[in-house]
Amino acid sequence: MIEIIFIYIFLSICVGLYASRFVNNIGDFITAGKSLPLVIILAMVFATWFGAESVLGISATFLEEGLSGLASDPLGASACLILFGLFFAKPLYKANLLTLGDFFKRNYSQEVEIIISGCIIISYIGWISAQISALGLIFFVLSEGNISEFTGIIAGAMIVLSYTLAGGMWSIAVTTFVQMIFIVLGLVLVSMEAANLSGGVTEVIQQANADGKLELFPSPSFYEFFLWVAAFLTMALGSIPQQDVFQRANAAKSERAAVWGTTLGGIFYFLFAAVPLFLAYSAFLIDPTETARLMEQDSQLVLPTLVLNHMPFWLQVLFFGSLVSVILSTAAGTLLAPSVLFTNNVVKYFVPNISNVRLLLYTRLAIIFFTVIVIFYAVNSKIGIHEMVENAYRVTLAGAFVPLAAGLFWSKASNFGAVLAIVFGVSSWLLLEIIKFEIPIEPQLIGLFFSLIGMIVGTYLKPSKTNAMSKREESVE
């Protein structure tokens, strides 16, 4: 089994390296020359978000908490992609930017650009680490413990690094399209077998409903409701000011492809995210004793164990091949995003007049740098895959969402308003995280509120001489 999976990984790397032949400059590396059709954008959006947390993370959370535990993902994640596609993709695409950080520089100032770029970069560490941790877990399971999770994490990081480093967005686009086909085919066929073993789709759904797992909202207490809302908004809004979402829409060959590729990708993600949930609950009906044992040990092992113990070899290959595809596609895209922001929106500040050739070199060096950070975080983190992803977007919700939305949709938004939005939002969030007040509202939601107050107060105290809307129209012309 492990040998076949490594052959599949090797072929994926070859595809990614082949795609690198299309990279001639920094624009090709970051946006694939803005030449990708709608179907490729859809595939990249879906496959990037349908990551390790979608198969291993949210399925484990579903077994423990039911649908009410999935406010952030897939509900919030799907909402993010749909909102971005319908409202943010078109104006950002028309602005003809290389990175999302460029938007903050154009609409506000270089200082705002650097600070928000830094917030976005930090938010990626947990998400990428979740993917790399999942690869380590897969290698550990498939090798029956012969490959340790630590070794698996290192190996997984090197695999992702190889073709991301070579081809950037071109490699990600081509490999993701192939991987999406494998993901959908593999999980659908595995689900059909699981349905057969568990007594049918209706039986699984009825049993899950009887056990209270299909309740969308938590118990009707004030505190639980606000926790649910916080988890939903953290992902739904906090994920919008992210380079990976932006760079997929920005790689489209037209505004239409950017808008509908992202929107349809979000809808498809929401629908297909039900598949791992169905598989997880099938495990309860197929082998309740083993599932209960794994729930106490590590609920993320439920799906891999189900497939290994109860399905034929060819379906095992399809499942783990699909799982590897899921992780590779997500990890590659999210590894590129912070590296691009770091070089284009931070390094350029300290190294002015940098050439495109050197900028491309620095971007590749940054990819290596972030890979090392991610490995360190993944090896030392004690939290689960789903929690890693949930925590990733707190800082962007508190510090980046309001400046982005205001810069796009409020013509009066000023640089001083953006500065106060960042200061008020991030400082209030951090303060509450540190002192750990027992309050019914999550710290990042309070950060979002104070960020909005900062933007309004700062804009009226010190308006910009030229409003953001005018600057956007000039950039499009």
Verbal overview:
The relative contact order is 0.18. The protein is globular. With 477 residues, it is mostly helical. The protein contains 23 helices and no strands. The protein folds into two domains: 391 residues, Up-down Bundle (Sodium/glucose cotransporter), CATH 1.20.1730.10; 85 residues, no CATH class. The C terminus is likely disordered.
List keywords for this structure.
477 residues; mainly alpha; Sodium/glucose cotransporter; disordered C terminus
Q: Structural class of the secondary elements?
A: mainly alpha
Could you tell me the number of beta strands? 0
CATH class of the largest domain: Mainly Alpha
Our count of helices gives 23
The parts where pLDDT drops under 50 for at least 5 residues are 467-477
CATH superfamily of the largest domain: Sodium/glucose cotransporter
Number of domains: 2
CATH architecture of the largest domain: Up-down Bundle
Task: Please give the share of residues in helix.
Answer: over 70%
Oligomer: single chain
CATH topology of the largest domain: Sodium/glucose cotransporter
Task: Provide the succession of SSEs.
Answer: HHHHHHHHHHHHHHHHHHHHHHH
Strand content: under 5%
Question: How many angstroms separate the termini?
Answer: 56 Å
Q: How do the helices and strands line up, and which of them pair or pack?
A:
Blueprint: H1 2-19, H2 26-31, H3 38-49, H4 52-65, H5 71-94, H6 100-107, H7 110-142, H8 149-198, H9 201-210, H10 222-238, H11 243-250, H12 255-272, H13 274-286, H14 288-297, H15 302-310, H16 313-350, H17 356-380, H18 385-391, H19 394-399, H20 401-409, H21 415-435, H22 443-461, H23 468-476
